[in-house]
Amino acid sequence: MRFIPLRDQKADPNWVKRASVLIADLKTAADSAARNKIIDDNRALWGELKDWLLGLSHGKCWFSEAKDCFSHWDVEHYRPKKSAKDRDGTTHDGYWWLAFDWENFRICGNAGNRKKSTFFPLRDGCARAVVDGDLRHEVPMLLDPVDEDDPVLLFFDLEGHAVAAPHVTDAWETTRVEYSVERYNLDFPPLMDRRKTVWAECWNRVEEYRRELRLCRKDPTNAVARDRVKQAAKRVRAMIREERELSAVARACVESAGDPRLTGLLRSA
Length: 269
Known about the structure:
Layout: H1 13-28, H2 32-41, H3 44-47, H4 50-56, E1 73-77, E2 83-85, E3 91-93, E4 105-109, H5 110-116, E5 154-156, E6 162-164, H6 171-183, H7 189-218, H8 223-240, H9 247-256, H10 260-268
Antiparallel strand pairs: 1-4, 2-3, 5-6
């Protein structure tokens, strides 16, 4: 998972205008059945933003960072539109007033979206927002790629598992990671296989960089040796750049080496 700066963007004004009309209709609808009909009759509307949303993530799922091993793309509602389930399955009213709010949209592979379903648990003791309420009062259990503090909680191991990052010691943050891995289906077997491949490739590049660096230190005035170090570093950086598939896995691989020189590459990519 990588941070997606969705709130720094602006959706197409014409699309927003049409969505605003539907949001107003939802707020004046007679009951939940009428609201659900408005949502169902206009479900194609959020699909119109799919290509734009995919562009924000370089064509990757916002949750898994995969391109083609997590099934086809859905425009997912982070806060469910019709009903919202607690972790134990208890059902509450959904966030229907956000059904056509583009800031509530996320791109998710179908393998994850189906598993997430309408689950959206909050921290114990936290009240759910009501229509037009301040969402900042909610403390969601599910990680959100649009919240820049959330993706850094997620890490990966060489076996392809999604796990809590090494710096995560808080029990609530650990719970959020573990539940998100389960609910977003982030240990989907084909996805884990792809992660293992990326990890192995990245580790080979890390070892190449270390080897070239050792050789260069034996003869620091050798221009060819210095260039080989730079080229090896470039190959590591290529795997951890934002636009690469599963770049967060490659970053975890580099970080796992525990080498300050490699940490420098993370900062410069």
